[in-house]
Design a protein that fits this description.
Helices cover 66% and strands 0% of the residues. It has 439 residues and is mainly alpha-helical. Helix 2 runs antiparallel to helix 3. It is globular, with a radius of gyration of 21 Å.
Length: 439
């Protein structure tokens, strides 16, 4: 077990930080001076998360699709990250982290990132650094959904949906749990780095869009093999590395909390990747590179909601459970329900995030190496809070996504024509090929 001298019960501190007023300015009387070490770590963490969103996710997804759709995946991810970042600056940040008014949305006092405080309340970092770090989360979360609709989504619809989804789904949920909103203050829901805010919202929404958009031409009878497992492995490695900033940066300080979160993140990914290829060995006869990469991502998603609140031994359990739960979920969604979530966004990210959020409750117990429960919360009450939080966010994400996707479809068709799909989106949507073979 890691010694956490910097805190007696990190769960209590996390909840206290969540309950603190989220005004644009630091509270009166608080130190109006940032800690340079904490600030530097947060800036580096923001860069790590952007590394996940840009080269990491695009290579991971791009290698899994057929060669004729590789560029389309990269452009879709890039465009979502770009427009999501712009909207975060304009209005997303203040909706998620502006002053708490009614617990549903933050007050609009920080549009265009104006009126930011010198130090973010409850931290020792500049509010501008905090807004930057949170912007990278807002950018990568809708990009995760790209894997659900590859090979068939119309580019204009993708950009519009990704932009609006960040404001309609992501920003409110971020406020409810991280910005002093009702799920944290009323129910005591905990989410260290995004198991609910990021992975549950994106995973559930991806499943809804995949069902609404329909299957790829030929699915499930036609074999649609990844065109480059090597690129997928490279993307997974970048995601794995970037996740250290994703989870470690969520400590908002360069301290023991950050180190504990990174160790647990790495431990969960290691166990999940190895468990996944072991399952593959028994199920299909061989351990594959795609399986190793997918298992690692499942482990990372599963440990995320608890990364800074559990022991390394618990992280091992999270990783093993991730493989055992997410692996069969892929087969359930694709082959039994025949929903063409093409790159398994729901089964890996959604189910992983929800599973980790539920496992958090028992593994917070000090007897299991956890950091303990906040206030009057105990294992049962925390478990109920986590289950209710996951259920409500999943339901909200599903309903809001369906309304948004179908509403946009009235003006911007969500799916390309059958001819364009056969030709490949690289050429039909962007007029380019990823690979030009010349003598």
């Amino acid at each position: 077990m890691i010694t956490r001298t910097a805190r007696t019960t990190a769960a209590s501190l996390l909840l206290a930080a969540t309950l603190a007023p989220n005004a644009a300015h630091a509270q009166e009387g608080a130190l109006d001076m940032a800690n340079s070490g904490d600030t530097a770590w947060l800036l580096v963490s923001a860069a790590f998360v952007l590394l996940m969103a840009a080269p990491g996710l695009t290579l991971f997804y791009g290698g899994l699709v057929r060669a004729k759709n590789f560029l389309s995946v990269m452009v879709q991810c890039g465009a979502i990250v770009a427009i999501g970042s712009m909207l975060w600056i304009m209005v997303g940040y203040t909706l998620a982290f502006g002053p708490v008014t009614n617990g549903w949305l933050g007050a609009g006092t920080a549009t265009m990132l104006n009126n930011l405080g010198n130090v973010r309340a409850g931290t020792q970092v500049p509010e501008s650094a905090f807004a930057l770090f949170q912007m990278t989360f807002a950018a990568i979360t809708p990009a995760l959904m790209v894997g659900a609709w590859v090979d068939r989504a119309r580019f204009g619809w993708v950009v519009a949906f990704g932009a609006l989804w960040g404001l309609v789904v992501y920003a409110p949920v971020a406020h409810w749990i991280w910005g002093g909103g009702w799920l944290a203050t009323k129910l005591g829901v905990l989410d260290y780095a995004g198991g609910i805010v990021v992975h549950t919202t994106a995973g559930v929404s991806a499943l809804v869009v995949a069902a609404l958009m329909g299957r790829r031409t030929g699915f499930p009878k036609t074999l649609m093999l990844p065109h480059s497992p090597a690129l997928t492995m490279a993307g997974a490695a970048l995601l794995w590395m970037g996740w250290f900033g994703f989870n470690g940066g969520s400590a908002l300080a360069a301290n023991d909390d950050a180190a504990a979160a990174i160790i647990n993140t790495h431990a969960g990914a290691c166990v999940a990747a190895l468990a996944w290829i072991l399952i593959e060995r028994f199920h299909v006869g061989k351990s594959t590179s795609i399986g190793f990469a997918t298992g690692a991502i499942a482990g990372l998603a599963t440990v995320t909601p608890a990364a800074g609140l559990i022991s390394p031994g618990a992280a091992f359990v999270f990783g093993a459970v991730a493989a055992v739960v997410c692996y069969p979920m892929i087969h359930l969604i694709k082959f039994r329900l025949q929903i063409d979530d093409s790159l398994d966004v729901f089964a890996v990210h959604g189910v992983g995030g929800m599973t980790g959020s539920l496992l958090l409750a028992p593994f917070l117990a000090p007897a299991l190496g956890g950091t303990g429960y906040a206030g009057q919360m105990g294992m049962v009450s925390q478990g109920v809070a986590q289950a209710v939080g996951v259920g409500l966010v999943a339901a909200f994400s599903a309903v809001a996504t369906a309304i948004l996707a179908l509403g946009l479809n009235l003006f911007l068709p969500m799916r390309v024509s059958e001819d364009a799909e056969r030709e490949g989106l690289d050429l039909s949507s962007h007029g380019e090929r990823a690979w030009e073979m010349v003598d």
